[in-house]
């Protein structure tokens, strides 16, 4: 349950230095540098100053303890993730990127990340941005579980940020229905992921192996669950290009 003493509010320009400091603090505690790429103030400024996105902050006793960031990429921008899935122009204009969410360790386990991101997506939908996409390292079980809970599924494996392997995950307003026998692919079996995605399968969840320890976010003992998607994806191709 979310602590009622926490305040959720929109970030202001004067919050940016504290936001960057929060990001670096969270990054230092991660077990792998591949989990995400750290951004600096120059990344956040256009989101606030040019209405290119939305940043929500969680504040406790005048201290920023969490942040959720989404971006509104231009339809013709090279970094619009919808292009990776071959979206037509009409859908590229509806894309919202789930960039990141940062929560201080002592405030985790309160569903704060879900609250920040869900509210961000609700606000984005009011602007017509109802195709949510995000990238995640295939070995990051906690982030993948979080995105699955929000309704995103794995649609492609590609390389981003200077050659790092990343899943592209997607949520659309239309409910995605999958069926058939599940196929399990170990999280770091990149060839296995590419094979399933090229056959029209999508990643719908993850299965932790018996030796996995849930309190260790860097534990890689899990597999991605693939199933066949029913019907037209209505968003271009799900194949791994």
Assigned CATH architecture:
3-Layer(aba) Sandwich
- End-to-end separation in angstroms reads 41 Å
Residue stretches low in confidence (pLDDT < 50, at least 5 long) are 236-241
How many discrete domains? 1
Here the CATH topology equals Aminopeptidase
Number of strands: 10
Taken from the alpha-carbon principal axes, the silhouette is: globular
Give the CATH H-level superfamily. Gcn5-related N-acetyltransferase (GNAT)
Give the C-level CATH assignment. Answer: Alpha Beta
Give the helices and strands as they follow along the chain: EHHEEHEHEHEEEHEE
Helix segment tally = 6
Order of strands in the sheet with the most strands? 1-2-3-4-5-7-6
Reported for the largest beta sheet, the result is: 7 strands, mixed
- The helix content, as a percent range, equals 10-25%
Beta percentage is: 25-35%
* Assembly annotation: single chain
Mean pLDDT: 88
Structural class comes to alpha+beta
Topology readout:
Layout: E1 7-10, H1 16-28, H2 41-49, E2 53-60, E3 63-71, H3 89-92, E4 95-103, H4 112-126, E5 131-136, H5 141-149, E6 153-160, E7 164-171, E8 178-186, H6 190-198, E9 201-208, E10 222-229
What's a concise summary of this model?
This protein is α+β, with helices and mostly antiparallel strands and 241 residues long. It has helices at residues 16-28, 41-49, 89-92, 112-126, 141-149, 190-198, and strands at residues 7-10, 53-60, 63-71, 95-103, 131-136, 153-160, 164-171, 178-186, 201-208, 222-229.
Commentary on this structure:
The protein is of the alpha+beta class and 241 residues long. The chain has a single domain (7-175), classed as Aminopeptidase (3-Layer(aba) Sandwich), CATH 3.40.630.30. It is built from six helices and ten strands; from the N terminus they run βααββαβαβαβββαββ. The chain has helices spanning 16-28, 41-49, 89-92, 112-126, 141-149, 190-198, and strands spanning 7-10, 53-60, 63-71, 95-103, 131-136, 153-160, 164-171, 178-186, 201-208, 222-229. The strands form two sheets. It has a seven-stranded mixed β-sheet, with helices on both faces. A three-stranded antiparallel β-sheet has the order 8-10-9. The relative contact order is 0.14.
């Amino acid at each position: 349950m979310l602590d009622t003493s926490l305040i959720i509010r929109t970030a202001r320009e004067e919050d940016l230095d504290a936001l960057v400091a929060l990001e670096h603090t969270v990054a230092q505690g991660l077990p792998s540098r591949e989990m995400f790429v750290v951004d600096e103030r120059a990344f956040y400024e256009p989101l606030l100053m040019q209405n290119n996105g939305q940043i929500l902050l969680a504040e406790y006793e005048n201290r920023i303890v969490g942040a959720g960031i989404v971006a509104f990429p231009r339809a013709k921008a090279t970094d619009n993730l919808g292009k990776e899935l071959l979206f037509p122009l009409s859908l590229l204009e509806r894309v919202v990127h789930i960039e990141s969410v940062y929560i201080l360790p002592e405030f985790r386990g309160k569903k704060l990340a879900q609250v920040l991101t869900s509210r961000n997506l609700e606000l984005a939908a009011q602007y017509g941005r109802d195709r949510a996409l995000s990238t995640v390292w295939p070995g990051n079980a906690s982030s993948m579980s979080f995105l699955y809970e929000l309704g995103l599924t794995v649609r492609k494996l590609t390389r981003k940020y200077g050659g790092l392997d990343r899943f592209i995950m997607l949520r659309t307003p239309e409910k995605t229905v999958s069926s058939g026998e599940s196929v399990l692919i170990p999280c770091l079996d990149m060839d296995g992921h590419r094979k399933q995605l090229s056959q029209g399968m999508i990643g719908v969840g993850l299965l932790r192996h018996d030796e996995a320890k849930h309190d260790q976010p860097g534990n890689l003992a899990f597999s991605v669950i693939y199933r066949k998607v029913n019907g037209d994806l209505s968003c271009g191709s799900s194949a791994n290009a």
